[in-house]
Design goal:
With about 90 residues, this protein is an all-alpha fold. It has one domain (about 10-90). It is built from four helices and no strands. It has helices at about 10-15, 35-45, 50-55, 70-80. The longest helix is centred in the middle third of the chain and has 10 residues, at about 50-55. The protein is globular, with a radius of gyration of 12 Å.
């Protein structure tokens, strides 16, 4: 899976990401595949808030971004769930 095109600012935070050397396919699991490991991995990343914000801003409907699933991101956008990084937004 190919990740969307990113601006220079987005590339800058992406270089700090824990996942920068991992196979992108890990973040785009098949339907029904357990995502607990990758979500926990993301939540330990210093740029998880930026990653999640990128996914929210671009309405990315697939994959795990900033430790969130597509359903969780939809819930954040719809106001049914709080952004887990709202207090630490940079």
């Amino acid at each position: 899976m190919e990740i969307p095109t990113m601006s220079s600012h987005e590339i800058s935070w992406r270089r700090k990401a824990r996942c920068r050397n991992l196979d992108v396919d890990l973040f785009f699991p098949e339907n029904g595949e357990n995502v607990t490991f990758i979500r926990d991995f993301c939540r330990g990343c210093e740029v998880a808030p930026e990653c999640l914000q990128y996914a929210l801003d671009d309405h990315l409907a697939d994959g795990v971004w900033g430790g969130t699933t597509p359903r969780e991101r939809r819930d954040i956008i719809m106001g049914r769930k709080e952004n887990p990084y709202a207090a630490v937004r940079r």
